[in-house]
Amino acid sequence: MSKIKLAIVGLGNCASSLVQGLEFYKSASEDTAGLMHEDIGGYRLSDVEIVAAFDVDARKVGKSVEEAIFAAPNNTTVFQKEVPATGVTVQMGPVLDGVAEHMANYPDSQAFRVADAKSVDVTKVLKETGAEVLVSYLPVGSEDAARHYAQCCIDAKVAMVNCLPVFIASHPEWAEKFRAAGVPIVGDDIKSQVGATIIHRALARLVGDRGAHLERTYQLNTGGNTDFLNMLNEERLKTKRISKTESVQSQLDRRLAPTDIHIGPSDYVAWQKDNKVCFLRMEWKGWGDVPMHIEARLSVEDSPNSAGVAIDAIRLAKLGLDRGIGGPLEQASAYLMKHPPKQMRDSEARELIEKFIAGE
After folding, report:
1. Which one, of 69, 94, 227, lies nearest residue 150 by Cα?
2. Domain that holds residue 64
3. How many domains does the chain fold into?
4. Angle at Cα 313 formed by Cα 234 and Cα 55, nearest 5°?
5. Looking at residue 62, which CATH number applies to its domain?
6. Tens-place pLDDT, residues 42-89
7. CATH classification of the domain holding 227
8. Considering the entire predicted model, what is its pTM?
């Protein structure tokens, strides 16, 4: 098989976990945890080659990828200390709305610091490097920046994996743009491997399948990475709340009223670093209309939890590109993303992914 030439937007914690993982799994044993698929259409992790990278932070722009993924304000777990030279230098991307103003009120170790550099022509770089798939790790709320990179992907004929809750794959107009260009996209807003959203969805579906009626639910999340710091600005959270809420609502036989469901980031706790803590409560009525409830606490390392999903999205996007498919890959998006063009039950979406990989 040929290599998957990958471009990365945003060298933050998620990119760090992804790049570390590419090296980690080269020497992993067969029973090493973390992979949903060792092989997707003939593509293994060793086939992923980073050819371009973009960021706006002064501590990352101009550095090699293997240096940038460990630079501040990154604070995720380092599980692969030695990452070989990629030969790729991080280039300055357009800032647009990618950096929230309140970041200036926090220490350098916690927040973004914009580099004094001119933005490159992203489309030109993608074409010159031969990039085939672009994975976007822009901060939540980066509406203009996300659309800029989406247009660059269309212009350069590069498949896109949209990991943030800016609605592109799930927006009819943008979906049609990708379809018309013959460019595949997987999106929007990545689900973690075993995280708050997938667990909430599974439990919500379980309640319905067992004949009970969900009455109320909440999901409250705290964390100490730049994602949670960024989301202290409520204006940047609109699509994130929609994405997470609809992801759970889509699994219910009866939609909950807005007053009975609350899902989304709750606060920034610096010392948690990349650890995300979720507090989940579900209230339902069962036999005889008797009220019952469950409360759960989930603790995960946020970025490795994301990378385990992103690596499949990247390979599925390349498979779509190989097959000349334009527009959203509905099966992959439904299983791997919170806000896909078409919501499905996770068991159904996984089955359809297996059929897609097999070429059915």
Report:
1. 94
2. 4-191+304-357
3. 2
4. 55
5. 3.40.50.720
6. 999 999 999 999 999 999 999 999 999 999 999 999 999 999 999 999
7. 3.30.360.10
8. 0.97
